[in-house]
Amino acid sequence: MVAARKTLEFMALAEFLAWDAPGGATWQPIEGIPQAMAPASGIHAVIQNEVGRVIGNHLAENRPGCRVLANPGVVPRVQSEHNFRIPNIAVICVPVSRNAIEIADPILPIEILLPGDPVETWTNVWAYTNMPSAQEVLVIRTASIAVQRLRRAADGSWPEIPLPIDADDMTLESIGFRCKLPALCVGTWLAEPA
Question: Which of 23, 24, 84, 181 is 20 to 30 A off residue 164, Cα-Cα?
Answer without folding.
Answer: 84
